[in-house]
Amino acid sequence: VLAELIEKFVSHLSENRMDCYFSTGSYKAMDADVKKENLSSVQKLGIEMTVRYGKYLNLLKEDAEDGLCFVLMNCEEFLKQQQRTVVSSLCCLQEHYAGYDWFASSIFLIMSGNREKTLMFLQQFSRLLVSAFLWLPRLHLSMHLPVSTLEYGIHPVYFCSAHHVEMLLKAELPLVCSAFHMSGFTPSQICLQWITQCFWNYMDWNEICHYIAICIFLGPDYQIYTCISVFRHLQQDILKHTEA
Q: For the BROMI C-terminal Rab TBC-like domain, which residue ranges apply (predicted)?
């Protein structure tokens, strides 16, 4: 039901020029035989974990690995059309996105391993503003960002979402804010980790689905409210650890 709902919602918005924040060219999926050797060690490990988790949730079948490879390879090629070249020694500014694409993997699971539906959804989704915040590889070396922003290698999620979480935390949960200050850690570091991983390993699958759906339906600012909600939920534990 969720798959159908977000599919129809995104399809409807992506057809309306007023709702399309990013312009994307046409892309035809490559049905090339994806060889595992072409994938980085991080991607191989991520695919293995995604497939194992998908089978545990009874969402994926035995041949799911090939489908996920197909999706990830095509996403990389599709997004490459909207990238610019930046000469830098920073690992995060090399041609390939340094991490694993947890958002695309999450959508693959929501679509029960249907690779065509997943890819179609991601292509339409990439036109919407919310894609910049939920799908981190979306803005990797993106021509939609100023060169000065790109050269720093800091993703907009960090200086937009994570920054606003810190501002809200001061007002909403001052004790948690103080605890972080005393620890020498910043809440934005933790938030960036959560958001990059789509809350995998932190929330149950149902909650991950709710997080993705709420941000798509209600807007990217709900990413910030989700992080604040998690900090509120963890407040007693955080304060206990600070005392100890």
A: 1-243
